[in-house]
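DM from R.C. (forwarded with permission)

"hey, sorry to bug you on a friday — could you get me a structure for this? deadline for the figure draft is monday and I only need the backbone to look sensible"
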Amino acid sequence: MYGYGGRILTVDLASGQSQVEEFGEDFARAFLGGNGFAVRLLYERVGPGVDPLSPANAIVIAVGPITDTTVVGNSRACIGAKSPLTGLFFDSTFGGQFPCTLKRTGFDALVMTGKAARPVYLLVEHAGVTVKPADGLWGKTTGEAIQAVLEREGPDTDVLAIGPAGERLVRFACCCHYWKNREAIAGRGGMGAVLGSKQVKAVAVRGRSRTEVADPAALKALVDGTREDLKKGTHGLKVYGTPVLVNPINALGGLGWRNMQGEVVPDVDRISGETYKEHFWARDTTCLKCSVACGKTFEVKDGEWTGLRWKLPEFETIFSLGTLNAHVDAAALVKGEELCDQLGLDTISVGVTIAFANEAFERGILTERETGMPLRFGDPHLVLRLIEMTAARSGFGDWLAEGSDRLAARLGLERTREFLYTAKGLELPAHSPRALKGMAMGYATSTRGGSHHDVRPTPQYTKAVDRLTTADKPAFACRSQHFTAIGDSLVLCRFTAERGLGLFLNENYRAAIAAVTGWDCSLEEVEAMGERIYTLERAYNCREGVRRKDDTLPHRVLHVPIPEGPSKGMHCPPEELDPLLSEYYRLRGWDRDGVPTPETLRRLGLGFAVGR
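My reply, with the result:
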């Protein structure tokens, strides 16, 4: 079978023992790779009620059939586990060079179970895995740790590492991968904390196997045939990176300000893609074999951080560390990105949690007695200080390290619920569920929670989907979730997929799967793969107690219309959301409480999940 290594590597960190399992075509056609493999493996190996930071949790790094092929945006991997932030299934994808190198080991998935007795790192090669001591790496930043492993293992190795935040079990700690002055982050859901709980500082991969595909000519024809659409669709990303979104989304009236008290940012051009390009750009960077080069290295050329060179603050970082905290200091955002990457923190969750704390202080719910300092909006230096304190779990940073939901509970939900900005325990990103009706539906039904990678905002910024109306939004959510489940299982970059192959599953995706695997599959079968994977994610979460009551939105989205700007008056009141959920459950074949029915599970080949 082309395009698949056909092997899953599992290592028990407590004993250091490992085993190799082969998977056949039935398993591959059912779950594809990446995200699909992760949820299937975790469903069997991590039962309900398991503490995500206990040895009983498992963590999976998986690639897919597209990885290391000629499809643009192919060098991506998925990392999945039960999240210490949400207590639910979670997966995050990342790019760089690591995914292709993992594919070349001949393993499609690495599963880590148990807990090492001392800090370790893993070296994965074609023959298997070696567990090595990492005592000297514990306490290092992500960059320092990766460089140390490269010095030990050689330049033909690629490394994914956690920082001090992961070691200290910050619930939204991330994992980082650096190569050739480029960074890739597996950012959300606390995957770095899961590795830290297992005392795994890093995973190194070294592989030389050739990745084959079933029909190279058909794959070349597909890549050539979609090249012009990709070029046109990614032009803004190529020139500016994701900060290209700042000005248009603010002009739409959907860019959060002061913990979502407003959605129009004053002086926003100071942090726009155009300003960063003119005053900070140093070089373009790219994932392995990608022509888009949406990554940028920025250099601060004057002021307090003169000489700092680091990756661009992504659009989400500009929102979470910047506008949500009511500041537009472009250089401070570059510094904030560097701190989060080196310390190993998800920029979205840390920024949203800090904004929540700022409003709690503003309302008198938090005082200097708890925080040790005055909190306030509009202070970039305060944001940077709180980032460092969070990673170190120092002082009030120990409270922030638990995430917004737990901080709100600590302060009293009755006092904080109305300005808490989470869904299913995960802090929401920059794409407004008030200004985009589809994102309201998306965040409410997302298996991850407050993530823009289950239902995608991209179609809603185009004419493909009307952002202003609830019409057809349940069907849109289903289609988008199937698209993202397939994309994360192939594993394929969102940017190149959406702008090259299409915003939803279509003939291009079917042709890509057929070309790399040799399967004679229909578009309906591909759609069913996406439905199967997403439904299994939901079944996993339902085992943990998720029901209709959890498919909800932050108070401000439900009850407080946008106060000004082009999207003034927009929100998603409960009487609007409730019938949308009912229709969504009907389309999915779930019961009225949002639980997949036995008939639906069996129809999708998920009979093993019935009654569990």
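R.C.: lifesaver. The first helix runs from residue 25 to 31.
me: no worries. The CA atoms of residues 264 and 426 lie 23 Å apart.
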